[in-house]
Amino acid sequence: MSEPDASVRRTAILGGAFDPIHRGHIVLAEQVITHTNVESILLVPAYRHPLKQERTHAPFEKRVEMVKIAIEGTSNLSVCTVEKDDALSGYSIDTIKRLKEIYPESTFDFVIGADLLSTLSKWHKLSELMDEADLLICARPGFFMDVASYPFVTKSKIIQTKTPDISSTTLRRLLRDKNYEEAESLLPAGVLDYIKQEGLYK
């Protein structure tokens, strides 16, 4: 598990399947740092995903390696494998609590896209989660951010991010169809070479 700089006091958590990680994830992380007082972001690949019944398409270790390749050379982005290392439930509240134990010097924010607002009420122990971390709600193409329609959302900040409209599902289809030129335009540098090397998403 990569560790954030010990001097950093405000850290954001960006979770996801990262199946595979794409340019939209990286742009989102960069814009969170640009538009907030967040100094470091932990990218947390999901080991278990309670709200999703479908399996991931690439093994956890391969998804972690793709994240490492995607963030290589960045000083304020790191990958965190705590969900697997500590056999966590996959619920965000448990991940946040464990990270606060590991990094007591940090204050945590939790990054979500506007597309998740409609399902947020189903999250496990949501009110407790919002007690543990502020939500950073980021714009997503095609989704209207009307937080007032979700009165249960507290301690949140809206960020008018502008990210490319990339779907991991579409990206996997491009890779399956060997449409590598278009796929490469959506992937961080080096990730396509790794996908081809490991024979992923066939």
Oligomer designation: single chain
Strand order in the sheet with the most strands? 3-2-1-4-5-6
The proportion of strand residues reads 15-25%
Main sheet characteristics: 6 strands, parallel
Rg over alpha carbons = 16 Å
Order of helices and strands: EHEHEHHEHEEHHH
Question: How many structurally independent domains?
Answer: 1
What level of helicity do the residues show? 25-40%
Can you say what the CATH homologous superfamily is? HUPs
Write a structural description.
The chain is α/β, with parallel strands linked by helices and 202 residues long. The chain has a single domain, classed as HUPs (Rossmann fold). It is built from 8 helices and 6 strands, in the order βαβαβααβαββααα. It has a 6-stranded parallel beta sheet. Helix 6 runs antiparallel to helix 7.
Topology, element by element:
Blueprint: E1 10-16, H1 23-35, E2 40-45, H2 60-70, E3 77-79, H3 82-85, H4 92-102, E4 107-113, H5 126-132, E5 134-138, E6 156-159, H6 168-176, H7 180-186, H8 191-198
Parallel strand pairs: 1-2, 1-4, 2-3, 4-5, 5-6
Features:
alpha/beta; six-stranded parallel β-sheet; 35% helix
Structure summary:
The protein has helices at residues 23-35, 60-70, 82-85, 92-102, 126-132, 168-176, 180-186, 191-198, and strands at 10-16, 40-45, 77-79, 107-113, 134-138, 156-159. With 202 residues, the chain is an alpha/beta fold.
